[in-house]
Design goal:
Elements (H helix, E strand, L loop, with lengths): L1 H5 L3 E4 L7 E4 L1 H5 L1 H12 L9 E5 L2 H13 L2 E5 L9 E8 L2 E8 L8 E9 L3 H12 L3 E11 L13 E7 L3
Parallel strand pairs: 3-4, 3-7, 7-8, 8-9
Antiparallel strand pairs: 1-2, 5-6
Helix pairs in contact: 3-4
The structure holds adenosine monophosphate (AMP).
């Protein structure tokens, strides 16, 4: 199964800038069986976790997270780029593998004590995921874990996530 999913991920060299090998998930999204398998594999560890919500960063995180929330029977919390969310927000800044950015959450998106899993398509340096953890925790949520379809293990993004349990469906040990 894991080998099958890898076959649906396309390496695009030098995108979005020289030196980055971009993991293109669009072939996986286009394949019904691969898409279903990816969503099920992301959700599997949390079947009995009694989550309040799955949180994800736009935009590729959204593609999987809403479906994972549906599988787990919980809600979905969008973490968005600045000035996209209409009501009151909090913000966290972070460094990307290829830039700097900020994400925001609605202040009422998570209630104190609620258990949340953060989902994204890929963990590279871990900056995005760490910012997502920061937002969930500042809202009072409890980060139960983080799930990624792809982990670029050679960038050691896990190091930014301390003791939080990380679940990766596919792990790449080198470029
Ligand atoms: P990072 O904050 O460095 O862990 O970067 C993770 C975020 O950037 C994810 O939301 C990915 O969608 C995107 N990203 C970073 N590096 C890559 C890459 N090599 N291929 C595809 N997406 C990437």
């Amino acid at each position: 199964m894991v080998r099958d999913l890898t076959a649906h991920i396309r390496d695009v060299p030098d995108f979005p800038k020289p030196g980055i090998v971009f993991k293109d998930i669009t072939p996986l999204l286009r394949d019904p069986d691969a898409l279903a398998a990816a969503i099920d594999a992301l959700a599997a560890p949390y079947a009995d976790a009694d989550l309040a919500a799955v949180a994800a960063v736009e935009s590729r995180g959204f593609i999987f997270a809403s479906a994972v929330a549906r599988v787990l029977g919980c809600g979905f919390v969008p973490l968005r780029k600045p000035n996209k969310l209409p009501a009151a927000t909090i913000a966290a800044a972070y460094e990307l593998e290829y830039g700097v950015d900020t994400i925001e959450a609605h202040t009422d998106a998570i209630q104190p004590g609620e258990r949340v899993v953060i989902v994204d398509d890929l963990i590279a340096t871990g900056g995005t995921a760490a910012a997502a953890v920061e937002l969930v925790e500042r809202l009072g949520g409890q980060v139960h874990g983080l799930a990624f379809l792809i982990e670029l293990a050679f960038l050691d993004g896990r190091a930014k996530l301390g003791a939080y349990p990380v679940h990766s469906v596919l792990t790449y040990d080198g470029e």
